[in-house]
Amino acid sequence: MKDYQKQIVWVDYFDSSISRSAGRRVPSHSATRSPTLEELSLAASKLGLEPAVQRARRPASRYVTGYVQIRKTMKKSELLKKMMLELTKVRSESRKRMDAKSKGT
């Protein structure tokens, strides 16, 4: 049964390799290349949104990606903007960690 107190945010909303007509909801210059469900979940957690993670296939897509379910606290457009900024921070932090590991080895 649908929970009207929650919003669903798909990973595909932030993927720069997906066109707007195929489901991307953020500008391409701000989108991330192949974001993961774990990165999206971490970004939502850092915003204090308490995400419920679900691996699933979007109806318009043939690939299984996933979504996070978040309690409604703001407009979806505002939520997507905040998550987009946080997702880029999460991605850059993970990239810095990977660079540090490779240089340390």
Key structural traits:
single chain, 105 residues, alpha+beta, Phenylalanyl-tRNA Synthetase, Chain B, domain 1, 3-stranded antiparallel beta sheet, 2 helices, 3 strands, globular
Topology:
Elements: E1 6-10, H1 37-46, E2 52-54, E3 67-71, H2 76-104
Antiparallel strand pairs: 1-3, 2-3
Helix pairs in contact: 1-2
Please, could you describe this protein's structure?
This protein has 105 residues and is α+β, with helices and mostly antiparallel strands. It contains two helices and three strands. The chain has one domain: Signal recognition particle, SRP19-like subunit (Phenylalanyl-tRNA Synthetase, Chain B, domain 1). Strands 1-3-2 form a three-stranded antiparallel beta sheet, with helices on one face. The relative contact order is 0.21.
